[in-house]
Amino acid sequence: MSAQLLLVDDEPGLREAVKDYLQESGFSVQVASNAREGWDLMQQSTPDLVISDVMMPQVDGYQFLKQLREDPRFQSLPVVFLTAKGMTSDRIQGYQAGVDAYLPKPFDPDELVAIVENLLTRRNSKPQKTTEEGETPDIAELANQIAQIKALLTQRNAISQSPAPFKIDLTPREQSVLNLVAEGLMNKEIARRLETSVRNVEKYVSRLFSKTGTNSRTELVRFALEHGLAK
Fold this sequence. Notes:
Elements: E1 4-8, H1 12-24, E2 28-32, H2 35-44, E3 49-53, H3 61-69, E4 79-83, H4 88-97, E5 101-104, H5 109-125, H6 139-154, H7 172-181, H8 187-194, H9 198-212, H10 217-226
Parallel strand pairs: 1-2, 1-3, 3-4, 4-5
Helix pairs in contact: 6-10, 7-9, 8-9
């Protein structure tokens, strides 16, 4: 599958031109005209890399990047800044905020493609701690959460249910993932059960966190049990 990119830029002409060039280079590209729209798209599907303009109305690139880096789901997500600002002080501000690459306008689109390919290659080649189950880092914490979930399930009948405090619409696949998380299954086991990739399962779990306002599998399962979301 081609890498999924998110392009955020408030200039329609540049946005479409860059999108077309990136797609011709083999990438799948979603576009947003501002940071808030980009953030909303990221709640639906986590991209492999973000390309963002810096000078945008309401929420600028630095604020958008700060929002990304403060969210555990996006802390290691590669981000490239496109900007008309080329002064050294501006670039330093970008790097201090956590940007991975900084490309002043006007730029050669081939250089952008090279930067994107390099960042994706570096990200994919980073060694990850894994177990035989193929789970990603912090296995002790994940195992602890699974144990807590299984303890919750033993008390399932004693948990009083109430309507969710806000409207939650889950897709059929999100519901399937939630049900399996609520059974205490790990991502590798869920992927095998649903015949999909572990990466896709991780995306669905992140989306469930976002939709329910929870931050861990234990919180998610407790929320699901309390509000009758798990079947």
